Amino acid sequence: MAHELPKLPWADNALEPHISAETISFHYGKHHNAYLTKLNAAIPGTEYESMTLEETIMKSEGGLFNNAAQVWNHSFYWNCLAPNAGGAATGAVAEKINAKWGSFEKFQEDFTNAAATNFGSGWTWLVEEGGELEIFNTANADTPMKHGKKALMTIDVWEHAYYVDYRNARPNYIEAFWKLVNWDFVNSNL
């Protein structure tokens, strides 16, 4: 079963001025698509041929895992973003954030710091495990499901997520991320 590149939930330019259509063209059109192409090239004739993406992630290692996880991570990330979104958390996730961190501002500060200091390439996640929220950093293609955690939200901190718009200024990209968070999607993951 060949995996397919999911359609973006918005137009390429919908996240401007925070994330440009040019960034989306490279990030989604080139990087995300390349992970998918490599994954699909690696699975024919293997036990992974009939597995779902999640099953492949949980069972595989090495290059196959890296490509499968990056396909899943990116597909999840796109849904974490939306035009005319952002601001403070809403709904049930806001209640859980306030219960855990005391305020949205404290959560935002801690998440921002985790994303800014996540060394090298990787992802910073808001996850849930056993009903508790946690900020969780992963390196490279690693994903929370491999650690028994449920992903609620993520920011991609690989340079390809921000180099076109922000060059090497990851903190500026993280600041822009907060103007795009799709809290409806985050809540749907609870």
UniProtKB/TrEMBL annotation:
Q: What does this protein do?
A: Destroys radicals which are normally produced within the cells and which are toxic to biological systems.
EC number, UniProt record: 1.15.1.1
Q: Which residues form the Manganese/iron superoxide dismutase N-terminal domain?
A: 3-82
Q: Which reaction does it catalyse?
A: 2 superoxide + 2 H(+) = H2O2 + O2
**Gene3D superfamilies found in the cross-reference section:** Fe,Mn superoxide dismutase (SOD) domain, Iron/manganese superoxide dismutase, C-terminal domain
Give the Manganese/iron superoxide dismutase C-terminal domain ranges: 90-188
Query: What's a Gene Ontology MF term here?
Result: metal ion binding
Q: From what superkingdom does this record's organism come?
A: Bacteria
- Give start-end ranges for the coiled-coil region(s): none
Task: Identify the keywords attached in UniProt to this record, alphabetized.
Answer: Iron, Metal-binding, Oxidoreductase
Q: What is this protein called?
A: Superoxide dismutase
Spell out where the chain crosses the membrane: none
Q: Name one GO cellular component term.
A: cytoplasm
- Specify which residues bind Mn(2+) according to the UniProt entry for this protein: 27, 74, 156, 160
**EC category:** oxidoreductase
- In its UniProt entry, the species of origin is given as Halobacteriovorax marinus (strain ATCC BAA-682 / DSM 15412 / SJ)
Q: Which family does it belong to?
A: Belongs to the iron/manganese superoxide dismutase family.
